[in-house]
Every structure is written in structure tokens, then in C-alpha cells.
Design brief:
Elements: H1 2-16, E1 33-36, E2 39-43, H2 56-69, H3 77-81, H4 84-97, E3 104-109, H5 112-123, E4 128-133, H6 138-146, E5 150-154, H7 159-168, E6 173-179, H8 191-200, E7 204-208, H9 223-227, E8 234-239, E9 249-254, H10 255-264, H11 266-269, H12 276-290, H13 292-311, E10 318-319, E11 326-332, H14 334-346, E12 349-350, E13 353-354, E14 364-369, H15 376-392
Parallel strand pairs: 2-12, 4-5, 4-6, 6-7, 7-8
Antiparallel strand pairs: 1-2, 3-9, 8-9, 10-11, 11-14, 13-14
């Protein structure tokens, strides 16, 4: 069949370029020690930055939520799927982010990808221009594509280029859209300067804080707290399946923005609401993030990042500078990155190789992610393996 032959030929091309992906199957909860395809591994590849995915309080809250609300929501939020757990979670998230937003309200989504599609397609009407960071996540890129707005892409971190674009625009609505922590590099966007530009040019600053929420800031309020930002121009998206350990995402902004999303965001309106049990579990997760235990876990994570920074000795490979849990090691060639990941895997260390199109050609890398649940000895084991592996190559 020609259609199948065409697909197979393209798959063969991916394989020849060392770009074909494969899945591994975990047989245990998300944790530093996992069973993968029947084998015990030490994992440095999840986004469970605070180690809450298998936290006993969160797991128990999920079990309790299923008992209270059942397994599913049954409908979209605007029909009958909006449960008391969803409402309480949105109220709690709005209160949590209140120091950084004016008259805040929060809206819960099934996934971060869906939240970004909803947010940009609803705010990015035909009278708008979206100014998108060149290294933005795929969900933001696809949200721009879904919007009816004109899209201008500015170079990574280039404030001067962005200011020229903003100054030249006569659009009724302007949206500057950026990741906070860039998921493949681990660096942080210059949010204070971006916000100053947005306030000067009457633009929204849409911040995707997927990898900052729960981790950055004294109390885990993410990149906004990290920089001490507060403004009515801010529209904030945080995911709840990474540091929060469960699933879904939320948008927090002025209550008028959120009401507009409720009325006009098609990815929110026309989908079944997430299981209420997940929202119930997230209430427990948010208590941990905001409390003393969350403080202790963030401190542990910072210590592990410092340990990796101090002890990793690379001559040819390059660790990108990052204060976050994302610690990329750029190798270059696709096959060499795959070989390095395979060599680590053979030693019982699960570190993924990231290749184009996720990263630019020639910058294939190992993406090390740290969790507060890792120990200093586990990180030392990884460092020894990486140092020896690079020296041998």
C-alpha cells in the first residue's frame, strides 16, 4: 500500500539520522529508583522536581478524591463536569499567586499543552499580534498557530529586537509570550525586563512557568516570586504535573482575563474536565509546596544543583549554565548523544538523549533533571559516570 510505504520510508529516514524515538515502560511509581522494562534504574529524567508524584499525602488524597468524586468528571466544565474539588483548587491557586497578580482568578486545565492552546487562541484574536520567544515550548508555538493573530518571533533573550517590534506595532492587542525556564537549556528568561517592556507598550506578558512553579521562589510561587514581579499585565501559566507531582495546569491572571477564557477558549470549553480526584490530590500537593516541607525540598534541590555544578568535570562536552533542576549536557552529534545515553543506561543510570527537532541541529544533548528526592550519593554516582564517560570518548 503506497500510503504505508511512504510512512515507512520516512520512518527509515528518521532511523538513519539517529532521530527515531522509543518508549520505555516503567513498572513502578515515579521516583529516583524505578523499575523500567523490568530493570532497576536510577532515573535522572523525570520532571518530578520536588518528589511529590509518589508522596504518601498526595497519593492518599488521590485515593480519597476517587472515593468522593468517582473516577471521571463525565462532562466539560461548562456542562456538569466542574466539581467542588476543581472549584477549591482554582480558589487556592488564585490565593497562592495573589502576591503577583491583580485581582487574580485561576482556571484549571487538563494539561499544560491545552492551557497554552486555550490561552493564546482566546487572547490572540485577529486584532492582536503575538511576540513569541524563539525557544518557546511546542505548546506555545502551536498556540500561536491556532490563534488568528499575526505572530512575530524574536531571537532568544533579545530585548532590543523585541522592543523594536513592540514599538513598531499598531495592533489593538499585543502579547509577549515566553517560557520562564527553557525546558531544554535550563536558563531563565529576563522576565523583569520583559515586563517593563510590556508595561511601556501596553502589552500582556504571558509566562509559561511549567518548570518554575513550585521550584523557584522562596515559597514556590515560581519565576514571578523568584524575580519579585507583580503587575496587571501578567498572565501566568503553571503546570501541575511537574513539581506539583500530579497532572494538569492552570492559568492565573486578572479575573477579567480568566472570565474571557471561560467564555471563549475553545480547548477549555469543548473538552471533558479532568478527573476531580486529580484536583483533590493537587490540594494536598499545594499544601506541601507552600509549607515547610516544600521549603526543605527546594533547599535540597538547590544543594544537588550546586553539587553537580561543582563536581562535573567536562572537557569536550558542555554543561549549559543553569540554576534550575534542568541540567543539560550538550554533546553535539545525534549518534554520540544516543551512545552516551546507552552507556549510562548500561550502568543503571536513566538519562535521556534529546535530539532535533526538540533542540537545534548539532546540539544533541543529555538532559539531566534533578529531584529533591535524589540523594547526594546518587548525584555523585551520576557525576562519576559522566566524567568517566566523557574522558573515555
Amino acid at each position: 500500500m503506497k500510503l504505508l510505504d511512504d510512512l515507512q520510508r520516512q520512518l527509515d529516514q528518521l532511523q538513519a539520522q539517529s532521530l527515531q524515538r522509543r518508549r520505555r515502560t516503567a513498572d513502578s511509581p515515579c521516583a529516583p529508583r524505578v523499575t523500567v522494562d523490568g530493570r532497576d534504574m536510577l532515573a535522572f529524567c523525570s520532571n518530578d522536581y520536588l518528589g511529590l508524584a509518589a508522596h504518601p499525602q498526595v497519593v492518599e488524597a488521590l485515593r480519597e478524591g476517587a472515593g468522593l468524586y468517582g473516577a471521571g468528571s463525565g462532562a466539560s466544565h461548562l456542562v456538569s463536569g466542574h466539581s467542588r474539588a476543581h472549584a477549591e483548587l482554582e480558589d487556592k491557586l488564585a490565593q497562592f499567586m495573589a502576591p503577583h497578580l491583580q485581582q487574580p482568578r485561576a482556571l484549571y486545565f487538563c494539561t499544560g499543552y491545552m492551557a497554552n492552546l486555550a490561552l493564546l487562541s482566546a487572547l490572540g484574536g485577529a486584532d492582536a499580534v503575538i511576540f513569541s520567544e524563539s525557544l518557546n515550548h511546542a505548546s506555545l508555538i502551536d498556540g500561536c498557530r491556532l490563534a488568528r493573530a499575526q505572530v512575530e518571533v524574536y531571537p532568544h533573550g533579545d530585548l532590543a529586537a523585541l522592543e523594536k517590534l513592540l514599538a513598531a506595532s499598531t495592533a489593538t492587542a499585543k502579547l509577549v509570550v515566553t517560557d520562564s525556564v527553557f525546558s531544554m537549556d535550563g536558563n531563565i528568561a529576563p522576565l523583569p525586563q520583559l515586563l517593563a517592556l510590556c508595561e511601556r507598550h501596553d502589552a500582556w506578558l504571558v509566562v509559561d512557568d511549567a518548570h518554575g512553579f513550585g521550584v523557584l521562589g522562596e515559597h514556590g510561587r515560581g519565576a514571578l516570586e523568584h524575580f519579585g514581579l507583580s503587575s496587571p499585565n501578567l498572565v501566568y501559566m503553571g503546570t501541575l504535573g511537574k513539581a506539583a507531582g500530579v497532572g494538569g495546569a492552570f492559568v492565573a491572571a486578572h479575573e477579567t482575563v480568566i472570565e474571557w477564557l471561560v467564555q471563549r477558549a475553545r480547548p477549555y470549553i469543548y473538552t471533558t474536565a479532568a478527573a476531580p480526584a486529580l484536583a483533590h490530590a493537587l490540594l494536598a500537593s499545594l499544601d506541601i509546596i507552600a509549607g515547610r516541607e516544600g521549603d526543605a525540598r527546594r533547599t535540597q534541590l538547590r544543594m544537588l544543583v550546586g553539587q553537580l555544578d561543582a563536581d562535573l568535570q567536562l572537557a569536550r562536552w558542555r554543561r549549559l549554565p543553569s540554576i534550575t533542576a534542568i541540567q543539560p549536557i550538550v554533546i553535539g552529534a545525534n549518534q554520540e548523544a544516543l551512545d552516551a545515553a546507552a552507556a549510562l543506561y548500561a550502568q543503571g543510570l536513566w538519562v535521556p538523549a534529546i535530539r532535533p527537532p526538540t533542540v537545534p541541529a548539532g546540539t544533541a544533548r543529555l538532559r539531566v533533571t534533578l529531584s529533591a528526592s535524589h540523594t547526594a550519593e546518587q548525584v555523585a554516582q551520576l557525576v562519576r559516570a559522566l566524567n568517566a564517560l566523557e574522558a573515555a570518548n
